[in-house]
Amino acid sequence: MEKIITVDGLASSGKSTLSQNLSKKLGWPWFSTGVLYRGMAYVGLKENFTEKEYLSFFKSQDWSIQLTDLKSLFFYRGKDISPQLYQPAIDEKASLFSSHPPYRKALISVQRAFYKPHSEKGLVLEGRDCGTVLFPSAPLKIFLTAPDDRRAKRRARDRKETAQVILQSQKSRDQRDQERSFAPAVPPEDALCLDSGKYTASQLVDIVYQKAQTTFLL
Ligand code: DC
Q: Is the pLDDT of residue 69 over 80?
């Protein structure tokens, strides 16, 4: 059985907090797949890539991702650029980039390859399509939701913006994520759907951890 837990959901629904806590509790690494989209979009913007250049960059040795239980880091030409990736301009650019089917399709095998080195220990994968497209056979799939205003408040805190401003851009990114033709951010049929607004972070991780114990016989 694949030792994979997928945690999908819309922006700021609490996926990273849950995945990080789960990763610590299980001792499994955590891969926040959003960092891949953010990193690629950031480099593409900086280098003004054409579609062809993007596709060859994906296959190059110029980038790498390092997983820890605290963060997923994106390196470009040996430098950790992760701190630059979490800002409003990249939220928008990554959302646009990730709605382009050729990029998504090319990045499927790239993301799947992250499991192999961790297949004995297990891997927590977080994103939008981890349970639907990347690992549809994952034994445990979570889909997180949270009310729009709560998600906006959460991101406003992280980005030092007002919730009002965030709410506007969040709406258009949600729509793009949910309505794109390929790999939309929708719950996998067999997912456990949880509203993160109804629980504390520790209640939420306990629920999923218990589920993991019975699923993976831990
Ligand atoms: O989870 P995040 O906010 O770091 O994701 C950044 C962007 O990448 C966001 O616009 C959605 C997109 N994304 C995606 O389309 N599929 C994934 N598996 C992960 C992220």
A: no
